[in-house]
Amino acid sequence: MHAVGVTTRDWVVGKPLLPGGLFVKSDSGAWANPGHRHPYMMGLAWRPNEPGSVYLAAGNGVIRINPQGQWRILTSYDVTELRDISAGSDGSLLFGHTAGLRLSRDGGQSWVELSGGLHRKYMNAVRIDRTRPQRLLAGTEEGVFVSDNAGRDWKLAGAGGFQIMHIEQSPHDAGKWLAVTQLGGLFGSENGGLSFENVGNVGVQRNLYDISFDATKPGRVAICGWGPGVQISEDGGKTWTARNIGLPTADVWSVAFDPDHSGRLYAAVHEEALFVSDDAGKTWRKDGLEGSIVYRMFFVPQGGAK
Questions:
Q1: How many whole angstroms separate alpha carbon 5 and alpha carbon 210?
Q2: In the chain, what percentage of residues exceed pLDDT 70?
Q3: 242 with 229: CB under 8 angstroms?
Q4: DSSP 3-state assignment of 115?
Q5: For residues 155 and 165, what is the distance between their CA atoms, to the nearest angstrom?
Q6: I need a labelling partner for 70 at 20 to 30 A (CA). Which of 88, 160, 220, 251 fits?
Q7: Cβ atoms of residues 231 and 212 within 8 Å
């Protein structure tokens, strides 16, 4: 398991950085902060044709960490404050930052800017369709936009007027997508991301930050945010139940289901700790990373960076 975030509780300007950047959980359950301490990492991806390496969306660019643990920045000075990164089944990489999004077909050696057809270019969420690498989704300040030709043209798919915080594709049904927003609640697509519609009232007027599908059980999904905490659906998003009993607050940055253990769910509570549940959020226990903000969690396939 990999996580990106930063330890912020009790830190003040002028003090040395606390653990931050990339966190990795070993088979023994212990967490480590390998490599350099980094104050700003928001996303992680790995290319299926490059086992052993991970790519991180960081404040100073896309960072590649190879199997030997060596770090290398793959972007130039003109892109900063990266917000998200996604890898396609063809090995392509897509990242979004505060002023656009760029695509690479050669492992980050070169990048093409794709935001020319978009009015607002702040990209908090980007995804490459795992079954159609030419289909890209971009979460902007004005909704979810979709391109079917690798970013040459864009159209609004839904959630118009809302800041998109995260987008995720179901591991069970490639046609199903969910998007969480700032103040607008949850939006879903049943047609491969071509259009998104509002999904109930969960999280409306609050900030939702993350989505996780349970790979072991179709229909089970977790979302989280500030105020709603952890919300679980067992019917693909039709109905939602709060699962916050045992958490210190309902301010949650990220959630992640373990693909190897049915119902095992992690939740990152703001400046408290990472918590884990073995029953899809009905009960919780502390799992480490005290005092941290964990923005995203990822289960990297065997052979990924350690």
A1: 14
A2: 98
A3: yes
A4: helix
A5: 18
A6: 88
A7: no
